[in-house]
Design brief:
By secondary structure, this protein is mainly β. The protein has a single domain (37-161), classed as Lipocalin. The chain is 11% helix and 47% strand. The chain has one helix and nine strands; from the N terminus they run H-E-E-E-E-E-E-E-E-E. Strands 1, 2, 3, 4, 5, 6, 7, 8 and 9 form a nine-stranded mixed sheet that branches. Strand 6 (104-109) and strand 7 (115-125) form a beta hairpin.
């Protein structure tokens, strides 16, 4: 009986201490809630103009958002789902990893429904005369659509115009 009382007292003490001292546990990478973390692992430095950050038109209702910092590249691709499970649903593929090297840049997006993108290229000055015209900058390089379900890749060379930038303020 004494052992039972001691065990109950110890259990109460441990439970009380745990309630008073909560502990945070680090989640393993790639758990189910992975979509909440949109932080991009980025390496390298760029000499591209930081004002080249913005939206680049990928196609009808599709964009590539690029956010350039001297030592960081982040962004996302947004497009409409085209599979039975996501038909007509806007999907946002955040950059998972990115790399900068002088004028060159590369990124790989996170996977959604077995689809992800990778890109290698640069940003060049387009023919538009001002930032408020589409095409002031062009995102040029090779964009690859990866499809895990069909074990396929669709690579294409792109020259994506920067969307019109409206004056602020």
């Amino acid at each position: 009986m004494l052992r039972l009382k001691i065990a109950l007292v110890l259990l109460a003490a441990v439970t009380s201490a745990a309630a008073q001292n909560p502990v945070l546990h680090r989640r393993a990478y790639n758990q189910a809630d992975d979509g909440v973390d949109i932080e991009t692992r980025s390496t390298g430095r760029t000499i591209l103009p930081l004002e080249a950050s913005g939206e680049y038109t990928l196609g009808s209702n599709e964009i590539v958002e690029v956010d350039l910092q001297p030592d960081r590249l982040s962004g996302f691709i947004t497009r409409m789902g085209d599979r039975e499970s996501d038909q007509g649903t806007p999907l946002t593929f955040f950059f998972a990893t990115s790399r900068l090297s002088g004028q060159r840049m590369a990124f790989t997006t996170r996977q959604i429904h077995g689809i992800w993108f990778s890109f290698e290229g640069t940003i060049v000055r387009g023919t538009a005369r001002s930032r408020d015209q589409q095409g002031y900058y062009l995102l040029e390089g090779q964009l690859v659509l990866h499809d895990a379900a069909n074990q396929a890749q669709q690579a294409r060379n792109v020259s994506l115009p920067m969307a019109r930038q409206f004056p602020t303020g």
